[in-house]
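Possible regression after last week's pipeline update?

I re-ran a chain I had predicted before the update to compare outputs. Posting the input and the new output here so someone can diff against the archived version. Not blocking, just want to make sure nothing changed silently.
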Amino acid sequence: MGLAMNIGELAERSGLAASKIRFYEAQGLIQVERQGNGYRRYPMQTLQTLQLIQGAQRAGFSLQELKALMPDDSPSEAKRADIILRLERRIAQIEELQARMDQSKAELRAVIATIQAHPEGTPCTQAQDKVWASIEAHKKTPRI
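New output (post-update):
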């Protein structure tokens, strides 16, 4: 294989549909060289760029955010610092989300424990009142 791939090769190696690759190209996220016959030729590094795009999208980055993060041909310390800052902010957002999810999980476990603590045959309305009281009590506990 040479130093560049056509779109079919890139699609096969990346596992992405050719239409998605063209979409990323249209969004300015990947670069392509056009041959004289109009065919696209993608440099080998495009495969790594596509993996980066997919990973960043799974981490919650929008395409607009990705555009700002994508390296360009003019490396600079300011651009590098900006990329690192944006990634660190995303990590902080993920950590906040994890904390909220942990809190939600704890609340659900408290509800389950309350339900399990009621003997069979307890009227649903009585059990319901205790479950809601348990939820309210749990909400009043300090959060991280």
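Follow-up from reviewer: compared with the archived run. The first helix runs from residue 7 to 14. Marking as no regression found.
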